Amino acid sequence: MSSASSEPLPRTLAADLASYADKPGAPVRLSGWIHRRRRLSGLSFVVIRDRSGLAQVVVRSPEALAQVEQLGEETPVDVVGRASTNAQAPGGVEVVEPSFLALTDPAVTPPIELWRPTISAGLPAMLDHAQVTWRHPLQQAKWQLAAASLHGFRRTLDAAGFTEVHSPKLVESATESGANVFGVDYFGRPAYLAQSPQFYKQMLVGVFERVYEVGPAFRAEPHDTVRHLAEYVSLDVELGFIDDHRDVIGVLRDVVAGMVAAIHERAAAAVELLGADIPEVPADIPVVHFREALEIAGASADEPDLAPAHERALGAWAKQTHDSDFILVEGYPTAHRAFYSHPEPDDPHWSRSFDLIFRGIELVSGAQRLHRHDDYVQTLKARGLPIEPYTGYLDAFKHGIPPHGGFAIGLERWTGRLVEAENIREVTLFPRDLHRIAP
Ligand code: AMO
Question: What is the reported pTM?
Fold first, then answer.
């Protein structure tokens, strides 16, 4: 039987070390990575990094100094010592009289200098070594914004009566367009990686009325752009019993506001570390019709879609005239939206679709959808598309799907704009693109 005194000292997180300010001399145990060693004459400062932040350890004894010499940066260690107040240390408390226990062999020096306040490597090197680049506190902080946003997304929708679903990623037919679909060999038959959960979320409206999904979407994007990935995280929403796409826009507004609120609640330290400018979400996001959007962007009235430069112009206009980081464009030409988009009944040239532009980049696409089986059959025929690959999907409409609509948010585009990343890859954990499938 072990006595209480032989119990190992419980772990203290770096961020909680500050709570020892009134307990100088108390024993503490940290667990983390050796983030940085600074040797001075007769003593060393060792910075320990754990999931909560950084802590300073002061090493003076010859034994501990010799130990620290052996342990390279990034070696995971246990440190047992005593708390001591020091205004210069993070949180005002440091650890003194330490002994170190290496939890692995000494780490090999990583190719990215993680101990520097900012990463000096260029983007290709950062991506080549993503498995260690993400250990840098600034990189971690970017993902903390994404993680908090995901929490806010789910929390908002859970509270509004949505059910979380997961749809298959191996599918029989392209959902968006045939152009950028990855083909796979499915037991000798052709199949595809899902470009979106579009058909499944619509079919599941027939089950749950309101659904959402957080999952990967695959697009064989043929171009190397700063805003496209071959695999991205799609935050999908679909809801039934709507009047039109404006009901969908109402949910979108609340979801984005919920994501922002969760960032403030759960990732305040990351926001501060990054100096990120987290947007305010207006109670009513400004909405312009596609025709008006072309005018604002100085584009020709017969343009079928908004180009990236047009989106940037609209973003700047929204900031200037409405002091908003967001602008909604509705009523895109029906012929240039996906076949499942609902036309405006009085003027079917225009659709009940929309895009949300955030800081000058398309963040969200959405729409009211067709919900009558005959409308799908007619639309597919009119577009010269075959019916057969869509049979399972179309059957759902035969058996009764209410008026519905939804949208999808691109997670990486969201965090990219939050931190003003020049390239979406900077905020993607392990990006996949034309040239990259590892790490
Ligand atoms: P769409 O194809 O416009 O719509 O995609 C929705 C959102 O997903 C993000 N996105 C991407 N992000 C990174 N790399 C890519 N290659 C990429 N492609 C798209 C963008 C975009 O706004 N089914 C519809 C959504 C719906 O109507 O519900 C769809 O997929 O942020």
Answer: 0.96
Question: 271: which 2 tokens?
Answer: 């926001």
* Ligand 1 pocket member 198 (CB < 6 A): yes
- Is the beta carbon of 341 within 6 A of some atom in ligand 1? no
Ranking 34-38, 59-63, 145-149, 387-391 by mean pLDDT, the lowest is: 387-391
Instruction: Out of 94, 221, 231, 311, pick the active-site residue.
Output: 221
CA 151 → CA 80, 144, 145, 147, 165, distances in Å? 35, 11, 10, 6, 15
366 CA to centre of ligand 1 in angstroms: 9
129 touches 111 (CB < 8 A):
yes
Active site includes 172?
A: no
Please indicate whether residue 425 is annotated as part of the active site: no
Q: How many domains does the chain have?
A: 2
CATH code for the domain in which residue 37 is found:
2.40.50.140
State the Cα torsion 77-80-84-86 to the nearest 10°.
-10
Domain span at 164: 127-427
Let me know if 219 is a catalytic residue. Answer: yes
Cis peptide before 439 (omega within 30 of 0): yes
Q: What is the pLDDT of residues 75-104, one digit of tens each?
A: 999 999 999 999 999 889 999 999 999 999
For ligand 1, say whether the CB of 200 is within 6 Å of any of its atoms: no
- Whether 134 and 36 map to the same domain: the answer is no
| 88 shares a domain with 175 | no
Ligand 1 atom nearest to 201, measured from its CA = 28
Are 50 and 32 in contact, with CB atoms under 8 Å apart? yes
Residues 232-261 pLDDT 10s: 999 999 999 999 999 999 999 999 999 999
Mean of the per-residue pLDDT values for the chain?
96
* CATH code of residue 176: 3.30.930.10
Among protein residues, the one with the nearest Cα to ligand 1's atom 8 is 410
- What pLDDT digit, counting tens, does each position of 195-214 carry? 999 999 999 999 999 999 99
